[in-house]
User: Which sequence fits this backbone?
């Protein structure tokens, strides 16, 4: 076998092993809660984008159990401090506004925020945190809140995979909502 054929055979064998290694590594990175985003424009130049991961119900009791009411009890990741729910799975759920907006009538500056929630059986607290790049809510610090609003959840049809979307659209407003299991958590976003 001449040198060119020998090198070609070695190259093909090496390529096979590299491809198999990459394929196996990618399989290990597939998440049970897949990444998703929801976007909506309002007004002339206001864009809203929510980036999140979508956990499934998978037969679990969601509200009050998987997602506890109130602040979650502290654990080793939160160094014992209670923390809110990350409004999704994996990394922080984030929400970004291209211009200043009003959330439930309260002003919020343009920017990207960590979106956290404190659920209860009656009302939910929706938190817009200046800190937006953490894994989960374990490092949550209320001193970094840009805004907190209280909203009332609504009963909704069954939804297996957590979903963010927009409803009640008008030229200057939209109602963003989280929909999971049998519950919707809406919060109104508007501009002047």
Assistant:
């Amino acid at each position: 076998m001449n040198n060119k054929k020998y090198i070609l055979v070695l190259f093909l064998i090496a390529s096979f092993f590299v491809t198999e290694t990459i394929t196996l590594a990618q399989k290990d990175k597939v998440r049970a809660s897949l990444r998703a985003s929801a976007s909506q424009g309002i007004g002339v130049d206001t864009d809203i984008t929510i980036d999140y991961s979508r956990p499934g119900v998978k037969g679990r009791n969601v509200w009050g159990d998987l997602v506890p009411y109130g602040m979650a009890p502290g654990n080793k990741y939160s160094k014992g401090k209670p923390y809110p729910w990350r409004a999704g799975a994996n990394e922080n759920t984030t929400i970004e506004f291209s211009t200043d907006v009003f959330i439930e009538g309260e002003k919020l500056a343009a920017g990207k925020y960590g979106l956290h929630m404190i659920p209860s059986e009656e009302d939910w607290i929706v938190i817009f945190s200046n800190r937006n790049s953490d894994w989960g809510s374990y490092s949550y610090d209320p001193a970094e809140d840009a805004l907190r609003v209280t909203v009332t959840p609504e009963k909704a049809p069954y939804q297996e995979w957590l979903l963010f979307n927009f409803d009640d659209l008008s030229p200057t407003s939209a109602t963003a909502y989280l929909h999971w299991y049998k519950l919707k958590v809406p919060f109104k976003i508007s501009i002047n």
Q: What stands out?
A: The first helix runs from residue 3 to 28. The chain has two domains: 1-30, 33-190. Residues 40 and 107 are 18 Å apart (CA to CA).
